[in-house]
């Protein structure tokens, strides 16, 4: 992957998703931190449904600590791993009050010390809440980066992040993060990616293999196809 190819990828996804943005609903850094914590192994859509009422009930760290853990668990039970996340939320709120006057710290190294907050969450918070350039690598960013050759197939999440930071100009880090997510979420999906209409197919080794495999498949006669469909339905 040379710089010209990387630039082509960045410009193409910018044209495809010029308005890419954080899809987690929030009104401040604290709400964003809670929302990102909840989003682990869960869709943004589900998180937004839960936080629509959660953020009306809990507005400050004190509010999350004023209820029993079991009550908070019930409030977020639609979220995957809700018990562990509820425990982390209360521990996070306690630390915010104890160390930071109830405010979410702006520094990345302080954010990652908070319970339930990893490197990805910290990157999302500093970039979206505090306008500090950062690239958060979630499943979409990782998948797209590896498919397009921006990172190696066997690279760790941290290695993907470091390679993106080298290939993408710093002032474009945050926007590129959002665009890669949109590209992965709505176009280059994990299952059934839109390779046949992808403007980046020539740069995607996996996409070219997928297209070649599809073109080499022998068409199933209509009669056989009907029988096959019927058997599948019966099964």
TrEMBL record:
Function: DNA repair enzyme that has both DNA N-glycosylase activity and AP-lyase activity. The DNA N-glycosylase activity releases various damaged pyrimidines from DNA by cleaving the N-glycosidic bond, leaving an AP (apurinic/apyrimidinic) site. The AP-lyase activity cleaves the phosphodiester bond 3' to the AP site by a beta-elimination, leaving a 3'-terminal unsaturated sugar and a product with a terminal 5'-phosphate.
Species the sequence originates in: Paenibacillus oleatilyticus
Family matches, as NCBIfam families: nth (TIGR01083)
Region feature (Disordered): 211-235
Gene Ontology MF terms in the entry: class I DNA-(apurinic or apyrimidinic site) endonuclease activity
EC class of the enzyme, as a word: lyase
Catalytic activity: 2'-deoxyribonucleotide-(2'-deoxyribose 5'-phosphate)-2'-deoxyribonucleotide-DNA = a 3'-end 2'-deoxyribonucleotide-(2,3-dehydro-2,3-deoxyribose 5'-phosphate)-DNA + a 5'-end 5'-phospho-2'-deoxyribonucleoside-DNA + H(+)
Record's keyword annotation contains 4Fe-4S: yes
Family: Belongs to the Nth/MutY family.
HAMAP family cross-referenced by the UniProt entry: Nth
Names of required cofactors: [4Fe-4S] cluster
Keyword set, alphabetical order: 4Fe-4S, DNA damage, DNA repair, DNA-binding, Endonuclease, Glycosidase, Hydrolase, Iron, Iron-sulfur, Lyase, Metal-binding, Nuclease
E.C. code: 4.2.99.18
Protein name, as recorded: Endonuclease III
HhH-GPD domain: residues covered: 38-186
Domain of life of the native organism: Bacteria
Pfam family, one: HhH-GPD
Keyword Iron on entry: yes
Binding of [4Fe-4S] cluster, residues: 188, 195, 198, 204
Cofactor binding remark: Binds 1 [4Fe-4S] cluster.
Cited CDD domains: ENDO3c
């Amino acid at each position: 992957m040379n710089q010209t190819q990387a630039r082509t990828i960045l410009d193409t996804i910018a044209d495809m998703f010029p308005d890419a943005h954080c899809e987690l609903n929030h009104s401040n850094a604290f709400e964003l931190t809670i929302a990102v914590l909840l989003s682990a192994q869960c869709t943004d859509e589900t998180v937004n449904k839960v936080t629509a009422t959660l953020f009306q009930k809990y507005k400050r760290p004190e509010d999350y600590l004023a209820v029993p853990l079991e009550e908070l668990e019930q409030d977020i039970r639609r979220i995957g791993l809700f018990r562990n996340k509820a425990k982390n939320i209360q521990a996070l709120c306690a630390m915010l009050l104890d160390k930071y006057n109830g405010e979410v710290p702006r520094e990345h190294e302080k954010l990652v010390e908070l319970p339930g907050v990893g490197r990805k969450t910290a990157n999302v918070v500093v970039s979206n809440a505090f306008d500090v350039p950062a690239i958060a690598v979630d499943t979409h960013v990782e998948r797209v980066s590896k498919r397009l050759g921006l990172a190696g197939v066997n690279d760790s999440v941290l290695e993907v992040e470091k390679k993106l930071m080298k290939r993408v100009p710093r002032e474009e880090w945050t926007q590129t993060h959002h665009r890669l997510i949109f590209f992965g979420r709505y176009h280059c999906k994990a299952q059934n990616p839109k390779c046949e209409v992808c403007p980046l197919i020539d740069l995607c080794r996996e996409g070219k293999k997928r297209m070649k495999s599809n073109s080499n498949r022998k068409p199933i006669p209509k009669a056989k196809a009907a029988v096959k469909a019927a058997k599948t339905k019966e099964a």
